[in-house]
Amino acid sequence: MTTHPAEILPCAAVLLLYALPSFAAGQDPSPPLVVERDSAGVEIVEAMRPLWGDSSLWSIDPEPLVDLTLSGGGTPHEFFRVQGVKQRPDGSIVVGDGGSREVRLYSTTGEFLGSFGGRGDGPGEFRGLQAIDRAGDTLLALGRGRVTVAAPDLAVVRTFTLAPFTNNLHYLGSGAILTESYSPGPQGNAPNEVNRHAEPLILFDLDGVRIDSIGEMRGTESYAFVRDGMVAGAPPLFGKTSHIAVLGQRIFRGSAITMQVEELDMTGRLVRIIRIPGYPLDLSDAQVAAERDARLGGFRPGSTSVFRRLAEDLPDARTRPAYAEILVDPSGAIWLELFRGESEQDQPREWVVLDADGTWLGTVEVPRRFTVMEITMDTVLGVREDELDVEHPQVLRLTRN
Under the phi-then-psi rule, with left for phi > 0, alpha for psi from -120 to 50, and beta for the rest, what region is 248? Predict the structure, then answer.
């Protein structure tokens, strides 16, 4: 079993850096952008300051290049609970629609080209659609522990079954699929405290044959509430969740405890740690109180609901999650979406960007109400919810100055 390195490793190299004599007159007193060292064969990259400073040199245009809700009519252009938006090598767009449980294909201009799936237990159908990915032009879709593999023309090639609590998959360039799972419910959790169970990372081939376990990730934090013989569970205030992203045969894993990402190879071996030391994550009493109030906002005053009691019982959080998502673009740049709590949803959606070599570039702001699902070299794909909560899968222009 792969163990997780400590989130805070010795910083001797950094301390030595600042122990050097004072800068001579005329020299730049700014710290270096990156400090690198090796520890037991693992490359450690520490990004000390953003290259861009306080401004962003990359931008996302809020005016969509393609809006699939507006590019046609009828049910193929109606969406609910979109589970993924991907771009195939030819530029066509794939959408996993959780409401209809379909995987739909659109041209580069938004014309509907076809779909597979639907509600049911038959070949290519889904009880629930959880995630999509692509292996070149081949499409992969996960629903309730079953994977559907579809040809470029959307014909269903095969289906195979994974563990029932598998909730995500990632295609690796070697013909393997990396799967994530989750721990169901509060059962087995220590009562009245925050729990976080390790969850396995397992490789399968495209026929569904298990290749190997390559370690684990720290699961999602949960709080088990036990009162009067009742057991209930809920995410804690500012609860942390681990995240996975892949690029080719490289795997990027993060626990969101600190601003740190670990890079693994196909065997699960840790090869690199990239982090921003000292990134501020502390929470004030006012922020914690506002988050608890947001949780309680859905209950009537005086309600005796067990879920209200659970929200009242949740322990205070000391730090916020470092990020809410990891994506890696084709250049190898790592994008980390800054976490926003339930009480912070009116704040801008921002992503910290680390270059492929670990340099901290800066922060990119995402247009309001837009959720990023994939990043290419010149576009960002995702879903925007309008003021009526209608979902708009869109392609936005990404400018890298």
Answer: left
Q: What is the pTM of this model?
A: 0.90
Using the Cα atoms of residue 56, residue 64, residue 388 and residue 168 in order, give the sign of their dihedral: negative
Question: First CA to last CA across the chain, in angstroms?
Answer: 43
Task: Give 362 or 302, the one with higher predicted confidence.
Answer: 362
pLDDT tens for 123-170 read 889 999 999 999 999 999 999 889 999 999 999 999 999 988 899 999
Q: Three-state DSSP class for 159?
A: strand
The upper half-sphere exposure of residue 248, i.e. CA atoms within 13 Å in the direction of its Cβ, equals 6
Sheet containing 198-205: order of strands: 166-172, 176-181, 198-205, 210-218
Q: How many residues are recorded in the chain?
A: 401
In terms of Cα–Cα distance, which of 128, 141, 195 is closest to 171? 141
Inter-residue contact 268 to 275 (CB < 8 Å): no
Cα–Cα nearest to 227, from 307, 332, 343: 307
**Amino acid at residue number 325:** E
Judge contact between 107 and 83, C-beta under 8 A: no
Separation between Cα atoms, residue 172 and residue 170, nearest integer Å? 6
Q: Are the C-beta atoms of 60 and 366 separated by less than 8 Å?
A: yes
Please count the other Cβ atoms lying within 10 Å of the Cβ belonging to residue 229: 5
Please report, as a single letter, which amino acid is at residue 300: R
The HSE-up count of residue 16 (CA atoms within 13 Å, CB side) is 7
DSSP notation for 170-226:
EEETTTEEEEEE---SSTTSPTTSEE--EEEEEEEETTS-EEEEEEEEE---EEEEE
β-partners of residue 363 are 352
DSSP 3-state of 399? strand
Residue 160 phi/psi, 5-degree rounding, is -150, 160
